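Figure caption, in words: inputs first, then the predicted bound structure.
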Amino acid sequence: MNEQEGNNLHEKISYTSSMMNIKRMSPVIGAEVIGADLRSKDQSEFNNIREALAEHSVLFFRDQPLLSPEEQVTFATQFGPLHAHPAAPAKEDNEAIFVIKTDSKSKIANGNGWHTDVSCDKEPPLVTMLQLHEVPELGGDTLFSSMYAAYETLSPRLKAFISKLSAHHKSEHVYRGRYSDRGVTDKSHYPSSIHPVVAAHPLSGRPVLYVNPSFTTEIHGLSKHESRALLDLLFTHQSRLEFQVRFQWTPNAIALWDNRSAQHFAMWDYWPQPRRGHRVTIKGAALEQGNEIDSKYYGNLRLSSSRL
Ligand code: SIN
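Bound structure (succinic acid present):
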């Protein structure tokens, strides 16, 4: 990116489509959508949201009405067929809904670590939609990090090396016993898959760094020590503050995120207060190897030299 393009990136803080205003929240990732009605049947409004999601990786909608499970499912289904969670219990009256809830009795909270949703599946979900109905007075933010930026800001030699690798994504350590408090009995086995370390985004074709500390356990073809060291390096790099946006929830706000180009982390800093809502995930395809490219988009970033 040349200097002129870099300047334009900062100037393009917001733009207005025919019906909604989209306001960027950081130079790298995330935008707030103002004036959208997610219950609307207007195809052009949905197309604008889909394009905005592809551009910003995560979208936030405040001042939304509390969506019924049917309304949430109707909106989400416009992206494609829904994904069924391999371990979590479905809501009794609507099996597409995953109830997110934490309260004073919780021993664990969903998503309290960097991850992309269910990356242990062979075909992990592409998009997730979460509406929180009850939020703590303080805390409970969700952080998102750009995996486009994480890949592109690696050195050309490391990009070349990891572009040929694949990694195991396992889930038994995440899911065994996880939902026993909701009456779920353990299964005999849990999903595990191998995905490319650098994947091609199915819509943009751009490479993303596709490893995460919650599910990715080892890199195929390296020794245990090499794999651990490389994963630690990639996990540290991909959680750099420069790649992130942080969302402070308000009641009934909605977040819509892309599980290929973004990772997220749901901060559990509000115990014993309750936080609850409904999550729906949309199916994705198996990941394909990404092509090596030089950085084109993040010339504006000046990465801090401090170790995080
Ligand atoms: C998750 O889907 O990982 C939970 C996100 C959140 O509760 O903010």
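Residues 224-238 form the longest helix (15 residues).
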